[in-house]
Please model this.
Amino acid sequence: MYKNNEIKKASYILIIKVMFLLLISYNKNLLAENLYVGVASNFLEPINIIKEDFKKETGHNLIIINGSSGSLYSQIMNGGPIDIFLSAEQNLPKKLEKNKKSVIGTRFTYARGELKLWSLNKVLFDKQFPEILNSHLVKYIGIGNPLFVPYGYASKEVLEKLDVYTKISDKLILGKNINQVFLMGYSRNLDLAFVAKSNIISNKNNKKGKIWNIPQNLYSPINQDVIMLLSGKKKSGAFKFLEFLVSDNIKKKIRDFGYIVE
Model:
């Protein structure tokens, strides 16, 4: 009899625990929000992983709007439905503060990017940087459009400081975002490509290619800032996402993609 009572008691406790977990799950789904997040192209793969982790932990769903930082900024200024903006630099988020399009006090640097020169053209593998830029073997060099793409602006800085920008300007192919530049290089339509370190790390295929490091003193730091827009202020999930972005676990995942995170 004593054992039967113990078994019944344990069963009741188990049922209560299951009901409690179901109730938590129900409430999480009931309160879940859709958050519209504008994300710079170089950060697309990391954000897709962060999206899944965030949904598991909070129930909130991230709807990703991907593009160059410049194009996303234009969408925001024209009233596009973006709650949070993850830029590939910090000047545009700063402008959003000045234009009163954002929530003051929500901007911070979530990652710092690194610029690399990359190629799949084997005849160039034994060349050195920066001499390779002047090689007669190089016909096409890809960079992001400096007007809209932060990594493209950094690439232009490098070429100007090396005093070769004007000389090789006819070889330059401009991409609308840094991912497009990488894909053009990957499909061998470019001899050289100025890309983000994260592009190379995200490439899970066997086409590793050759990577040339670019000294940090040749371009301004690529501090990637996030900021909450006014529409995000109305959503509790937006505040939770910013907290989630600086958690130790997420910081580690961002570092794994080749970014510098303080």
Notes: Residues 6-112+222-256 form a domain with the D-Maltodextrin-Binding Protein; domain 2 fold (CATH 3.40.190.10).
